UniProtKB/TrEMBL annotation:
Cellular component annotations (GO), alphabetically ordered: cytoplasm
Listed CDD domains: PTS_IIA_fru
Predominant location category: cytoplasm
Record's keyword annotation contains Phosphoprotein: yes
Record protein name field: Ascorbate-specific PTS system EIIA component
Domain PTS EIIA type-2: 4-149
Organism: Criibacterium bergeronii
Molecular function GO terms recorded: kinase activity
Biological-process GO terms, alphabetical: phosphoenolpyruvate-dependent sugar phosphotransferase system
InterPro entries, A to Z: Ascorbate-PTS_EIIA_comp, PTrfase/Anion_transptr, PTS_EIIA_type-2_dom
Amino acid sequence: MLKDFIENRHFIFADSVENWEEAIKLSCKPFIDDATADEAYAQELVESVKKYGPYIVLMPGVALPHSQEGSGSVHKTSISFMKLKNPVSFDENDADMYADLFFTLASCNHDEHLKNMAKLSEMLLNEELVEKLHKVKNEEDLKKLSDEFNI
């Protein structure tokens, strides 16, 4: 899966963003750059979190921005990876609702989406890998992790 991020250029490393809304928008940039999704998709994700709350924070430090399959602004099924040096808070009243790792999903094919979710779930269950992902700083670090974990 990390190999896919690298090969597809679906990754971003950033120091900081103003807030979680900007983090979500930035995490969609690789999709916009290669026409996986339109800019409208990023706004759909932001609106979804505003409506339903920070459901995208899977665990402290890890967010999974996504929306319902079938969005007209998504043209390919894919996942992007973003690492922020400075995490963003999704809820100032809950210390666990922050993220510096973003795995943003775009989906227009149900079967491919399920495969991506299974791969991502397997990856996130590997505590050592997640711990090391929190420390990556650049593409080279990401490549090293991809080689180390063969993913």
